[in-house]
Amino acid sequence: MSVGVFAAVLLAAFLHAAWNAVVKGGGDKFMSMTGMAVGHAIPGTAAILLLPSPAPESWPWIAIGVALHFGYQWFLLNAYRLGDLSQVYPLARGSAPLIVAVVSVTALGVVLTGTEVAAILLIAAGIISIGLARSGRANPGAVSAALITGVFIAAYSLTDGIGARLSGSPIAYFGWTATLGGVAFAAFAQWRRPGMVRALPRTAPGAFFFGGSASFAAYAIVVWAFTQAPIALVTALRETSIVFALLIGAFVLRERVDLARIASIFVTITGTVLMRFARS
């Protein structure tokens, strides 16, 4: 992975952590998720209008991607409802790179070096152990929701990676995916809570304005990176956003970080450094 792609994906991971930190304090998780999803449509529409249209062969992948992103959002909300997300969310984010790596090697014919495989394993282990470091036990329902969420993350990562490569215009590709997905989630939210979508700029401004734009920028960078490096490596590196989230929590929000989490961060960073030098 080149220095430019590596740095860009780390920037995307930081942006992902930053918008999560902004909306973290919101008590209404459904409203925050809706604000972020609908907020995607603003930069998404700009990308559609300003950039070349994706190639026709990528449109089926856009449709699949919209459905998978919606499924991810739905099961993530279930994880919020069923358990402590600080326990189950790392399980979702940490399992996704492992799934992507297995599918890439076994089904897509991608060849990964031993060093790259080791880097993916270390990053995934570090992320998952962040959740395991929490005191108490997650209930089976919450763990199931987390693992299903991880499957959706892996599925949309693979779909968007393939679609972006076919599109010839990866940012516009994600512009369409994000905008159509925002419209779909807005319709769902309007059905669940009539009148909520119209009030989002007032009731959830952080999620709608900053969350939507930062989330769009973060994943748009990742979609572009999918066209520059193996999807499995980009997916694993993207999930280091959890480390950035912990650092923001410790140094900005003054949250406590114990020795177990410090060890988890060290393992994840070790995998990140290994990935950087795995392939020129």
TrEMBL record:
<keyword id="KW-0472">Membrane</keyword>
<feature type="transmembrane region" description="Helical">
    <location>
        <begin position="203"/>
        <end position="225"/>
    </location>
</feature>
<dbReference type="InterPro" id="IPR000390">
    <property type="entry name" value="Small_drug/metabolite_transptr"/>
</dbReference>
<dbReference type="InterPro" id="IPR037185">
    <property type="entry name" value="EmrE-like"/>
</dbReference>
<keyword id="KW-0448">Lipopolysaccharide biosynthesis</keyword>
<dbReference type="Pfam" id="PF00892">
    <property type="entry name" value="EamA"/>
</dbReference>
<feature type="transmembrane region" description="Helical">
    <location>
        <begin position="58"/>
        <end position="77"/>
    </location>
</feature>
<keyword id="KW-0812">Transmembrane</keyword>
<feature type="transmembrane region" description="Helical">
    <location>
        <begin position="97"/>
        <end position="130"/>
    </location>
</feature>
<dbReference type="GO" id="GO:0009103">
    <property type="term" value="P:lipopolysaccharide biosynthetic process"/>
</dbReference>
<keyword id="KW-0443">Lipid metabolism</keyword>
<keyword id="KW-0444">Lipid biosynthesis</keyword>
<dbReference type="GO" id="GO:0005886">
    <property type="term" value="C:plasma membrane"/>
</dbReference>
<dbReference type="GO" id="GO:0009245">
    <property type="term" value="P:lipid A biosynthetic process"/>
</dbReference>
<feature type="transmembrane region" description="Helical">
    <location>
        <begin position="30"/>
        <end position="51"/>
    </location>
</feature>
<feature type="domain" description="EamA">
    <location>
        <begin position="143"/>
        <end position="275"/>
    </location>
</feature>
<feature type="transmembrane region" description="Helical">
    <location>
        <begin position="231"/>
        <end position="252"/>
    </location>
</feature>
<dbReference type="GO" id="GO:0022857">
    <property type="term" value="F:transmembrane transporter activity"/>
</dbReference>
<protein>
    <submittedName>
        <fullName>EamA-like transporter family protein</fullName>
    </submittedName>
</protein>
<keyword id="KW-0441">Lipid A biosynthesis</keyword>
<keyword id="KW-1133">Transmembrane helix</keyword>
<feature type="transmembrane region" description="Helical">
    <location>
        <begin position="171"/>
        <end position="191"/>
    </location>
</feature>
<feature type="transmembrane region" description="Helical">
    <location>
        <begin position="142"/>
        <end position="159"/>
    </location>
</feature>
<keyword id="KW-1003">Cell membrane</keyword>
<dbReference type="InterPro" id="IPR000620">
    <property type="entry name" value="EamA_dom"/>
</dbReference>
<keyword id="KW-0997">Cell inner membrane</keyword>
